[in-house]
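**Tokenised fold:**
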Amino acid sequence: MKSRSGKNKGKRFQNWIAQQISDLLGIPCEKDGDIESRQMGMSGVDIILRGKAAELFPYSIEAKNQETFSLPAWIRQTKLNIKPNTDWLLFITKNRFDKVVVMDAEKFFELYRRLLGDKANFIYPNAALLSSKIKAQLSVSDGTPSITAIIKGIE
């Protein structure tokens, strides 16, 4: 793929992510606004979140739309660009492939526990025990990432 068309492909993916966040929060995505897609080739996070958007969506976002996956390198890059008081998110896609998000497994379970709140004890009385017994493993096969959850010792 030519460099320019590759950059256009990456920019379209960044714009899609920014628009999804905009729709989710009800905050416009615009240049110099609270949600903005960073210009290609600039260092730092790919989606700039300011003000209320940063408060409501506290994530540092890296976007990759490439045909060859380099997941460990991308995660390192995402962590290097992390903003204070945020967690990192890595959005990945390629041609004819679903859009996926990679995040820290501990943060994922923390987020899900908050989402469940009091419902966790209703659904499964030992929800805290359950979440401590889950181990998530990320693997890449043929360039396709997958997550395997292993649950040990649930009685």
In short: The helical segments are 3-25, 51-56, 71-80, 105-116, 119-123, 127-133. The beta strands are 35-37, 47-49, 59-65, 87-93, 100-102, 134-141, 144-151. The first helix runs from residue 3 to 25.
